[in-house]
TrEMBL record:
It comes from Dichomitus squalens (strain LYAD-421). The lineage of its organism: Eukaryota, Fungi, Dikarya, Basidiomycota, Agaricomycotina. InterPro entries: BTB/POZ_dom, SKP1/BTB/POZ_sf. This is BTB domain-containing protein. It comes from the Eukaryota. Residues 23-131 form the BTB domain. SMART domains: BTB.
Length: 333
């Protein structure tokens, strides 16, 4: 080991990605060493700027003649953050690159801690865009496919991920809620909390493990919001079904029935039995037409084969409107 290396713990290894040979500062996290530029870090982060303004001791830790600073943060999170700040104008966050939610979340956590406001805003805006624009996605799908393709939860989720420049999994919602609270981005909350309710119940109870070993959990208050919201979300699903069945019985809707108007009686029986039925939908049925509900009402399965083909298709029509305000209300935000 050379004299310039003697002050560095032997377990620290050069990071394969964030290592600039002409860098003038080395950041060590765990067993990973990153070589960067003080000027770039100082420009992005007030904390690093202040840290570098303090003279380092002459016998301080060094590697390759560079001063070494050790941080307690996970190396994976720091790598995401350093990757962001070493790209001019954070272009990989702002343009056509589609980052995974986990990367953006790591940038937000580290950037918030080290007061790198610009990079946090770039990453958080991507996250906010995904969780706040879902009403327009739903409206677009329903408008384009009315009368041609029924709406399913899977179709909505696929389309929303395709339309938004961020790759998100349902379980990411738990960390998104925490980031919304941390960063003061309340527009993230309604849909993120909804996804928490729609996901694995064990995640709601135990949280979701992150790559850095930490666990993203709902606060006690947000956990209670979800528990109280689930019955209301299910009731909203039932109300939508009831509304579709009631509308299907009207003369104007039945004007092109190919069964001589006999489907009106079928719809009446279906509507009557549905009201009497103790139907329990799943939360994601809020985004599904009747034929594609996860759990179908007995009233539907009993009578739908008695309908003509045109009247069956009427049940694929989804009434949309006011869901964004509804979620805000149901979670008491």
């Amino acid at each position: 080991m050379s004299p310039t290396d003697c002050h560095l713990a032997p377990e620290a290894k050069r990071d394969e990605e964030i290592w600039f040979e002409d860098g003038n500062i080395i950041i060590v996290a765990g067993d990973t060493a990153f070589r960067l530029y003080k000027g770039i870090l100082s420009a992005a982060s007030l904390v690093f700027k202040d840290l570098f303004s303090v003279p380092q001791p002459e016998d301080g830790e060094t590697m390759d003649n560079c001063p070494v600073i050790r941080l307690p943060d996970p190396a994976t999170d720091l790598r995401h953050f350093f990757r962001a700040v070493t790209k001019p104008d954070f272009s990989h966050l702002r343009h056509d690159y589609k980052p995974a939610f986990g990367m953006l979340a790591a940038v937000c956590r580290i950037g918030h801690k080290y007061q790198a406001d610009e990079v946090v805003d770039a990453a958080a805006s991507r996250i906010e865009n995904f969780f706040a624009r879902w009403p327009s996605t739903a409206a677009t799908i329903i408008s384009k496919n009315r009368g041609r393709m029924p709406l399913t939860w899977e179709l909505f989720w696929w389309a929303h991920n395709r339309l938004c420049p961020t790759a998100v999994e349902i379980q990411d919602a738990f960390e998104a809620v925490g980031l919304a609270r941390l960063l003061g981005r309340p527009s993230i909350l309604p849909f993120a909390l909804y996804l928490c309710c729609a996901g694995d119940p064990l995640h709601m109870r135990d949280g979701v493990p992150r790559p850095d070993g930490a666990v993203s959990r709902l606060s006690s208050e947000d956990y209670l919001r979800c528990i109280q919201a689930i019955p209301k979300l299910r009731a909203a699903c039932s109300d939508k079904i009831r509304s579709v069945l009631a509308r299907s019985m009207t003369a104007s809707v039945l004007s092109d029935c190919t069964n001589g108007g006999q489907c009106a009686e079928v719809f009446e029986m279906m509507h009557r039995d549905f009201i009497e039925e103790k139907y329990v939908p799943v939360v994601t049925d809020l985004f599904a037409s009747i034929r594609f509900l996860r759990t179908k009402p007995v009233a539907y399965t009993t009578y739908y084969l008695c309908l003509c083909s045109r009247c069956v298709l009427r049940l694929d029509v989804i009434e949309y409107g006011g869901e964004a305000a509804f979620l805000t209300k149901v979670f008491e935000l």
